[in-house]
Amino acid sequence: MEFKLLKKDTKTKARAGIFTTAHGPVETPVFMPVGTQGTVKGVLMKDLTEMDVNVILGNTYHLYIRPGLEVIKGAGGLHKFCNWDRTILTDSGGFQVFSLEGLRKITEEGAVFQSYLDGSEHMFSPESVVNIQNILGSDIAMVFDECVPNPCKKEYALEALERTTRWAKRAKQAHSLKSQAQFGIIQGSVFSDLRIRSAKEITGIEFDGYAIGGLSVGETKKEMHDMIEVVEPLMPENKPRYLMGVGTPDDLWECIERGIDMFDCVFPTRVARNGLLFTSTGRMNLKNAEYTNDYKAPDAECGCYTCKNYSRAYLRHLIKAHELSGLYLNTLHNLHFMIKLTAQIRNAILSGNFLQKKAEFFEKYKL
Fold first, then answer.
1. How many domains does the chain have?
2. pTM of the full predicted structure?
3. Neighbour tally for 286: CB within 10 Å
4. Domain region containing 72
5. Are residues 221 and 296 in the same domain?
6. Are 12 and 157 contained in the same domain?
């Protein structure tokens, strides 16, 4: 995978670039909609194409459990199975496995866990996760890491960090699919010295890109920002930088300012299904009674299909009535908002007025 850095902001760490995979170019910064099980919940692939999404996520753990590798292999890989001809990044499933408290056991070889569907026992190792992602045929594959909860003891964070490094070396050695980029993951919880150590060890393995994992798991925003600032100087300038599981409008501005290129998060689609919209003036909870007779567009500054055609009152009615079309229209809007916002931030970097545009955004967008 080739990454080209196009512009760096002169007053912050913000940067704009572009990388190319076997399924086309991806401009950075980029927000990647989460398609855990081969679909982005609530919308169709054509919707994503129309809003200029160039990369989505799939999840190794969930796709392995259901529908299973044989089904996807029989379809010719994940791209053909889900009818997506652009870039796919697959998470290793590490976060999902390690969130199965009481249903998994960690060894040096890997993680033994029980299926949430039928209780059957399975094992993920660094090598098997590489093999699964090879079969899926994703363009970017994440290595198998050990994610720790927050809060956790420093001793456990260190143990997980050391195992993550050993597993990363094994994953690197096992990886041979030339059309697939491979990213390493930096761990260390909220301990600065551990983050520094992990960053040095993981970047020393020479992956195609690097991710910061183990954040957005309960720590404060300040702790997250502090960890990014600790790690960023140690991440190669000529490789993409990915902050895993983070992605709200304010997160994009703050973390791009600190040097991050790639984001993913289920939050925009999850809250949309519960009636919460992102707008140019802040978050809007359609379940609030104040929108019962509000016939204005959800966001006057948004050009998405939802805002062009429907009112706040109608969308509130759909959510209150549990209509599926409400889930669709809200999700369509939130994804459109995130994609367009990321494009606006990128343009601000390229134009040399990042901080000005950030200030203008937060003058209206109230947290």
1. 2
2. 0.97
3. 25
4. 2-265
5. no
6. yes
